[in-house]
């Protein structure tokens, strides 16, 4: 009888540290993610949530440890070329082209991906179907976020890196976000979310990054003091 080795986790952060601008931001982080897995990153402002996502996206190199995708170090260029095609990144910088209309903003990315046909259904799902022919400058902040999420759905890559995805979304928008995350995971996708806002993601791992500059005084102590910032 042959014993099959367990498969590699899809993503493994193995004792990873990361510097930014000469400062240690992340120290000795270990995370294992299999298909369908989800990780929620929380922590104070400046704790390193975006740095974590940037590192997974390959924008920052780990200063120690390694990020493995299917058991391969993403820093190796041949691996990175394949790995980056797995990623979908949503952040505060929305990369929406104001010269294109809403629909074209998605179809342009679909064209680059060699995919087509999902732009309009994705807009409908995100509640933007009636705005498809409008210019993005007609959209509110929350609608722009919905457009980003629609683009992510249409492009349909397996690993979602979401930096504060629910900022500017109304309650319905958050529910749709939670729904698309759950559906993506059912298809075997992986979702990593950095957030300050509550979000319901079933069976997700939670990683709370420690504050980098802990306060010497608690908030109630500070609020009780006379304000003197001179
Ligand atoms: N562009 C940058 N260049 C150099 N260092 C940076 C840069 N942006 C952030 N940092 C440093 O990295 C640290 C972590 O920042 P990061 O954006 O990862 O935190 P965060 O947890 O996402 O914060 P927030 O909750 O405010 O979004 C910051 O404290 C800052 O010192």
TrEMBL record:
Chain ranges of the ABC transporter domain: 11-229
The protein, known as: ABC transporter I family member 1-like
Pfam families named among the record's database cross-references: ABC_tran
Keywords, in A-Z order: ATP-binding, Cytochrome c-type biogenesis, Membrane, Nucleotide-binding, Translocase, Transport
GO molecular function: ATP binding; ATP hydrolysis activity; transmembrane transporter activity
Gene3D superfamilies per the UniProt record, alphabetical: P-loop containing nucleotide triphosphate hydrolases
Highest taxon in the source lineage: Eukaryota
Gene Ontology biological process terms, A to Z: cytochrome complex assembly
UniProt xrefs under PROSITE patterns: ABC_TRANSPORTER_2
InterPro entries, A to Z: AAA+_ATPase (IPR003593), ABC_transporter-like_ATP-bd (IPR003439), ABC_transptr_haem_export_CcmA (IPR005895), P-loop_NTPase (IPR027417)
NCBIfam families: ccmA
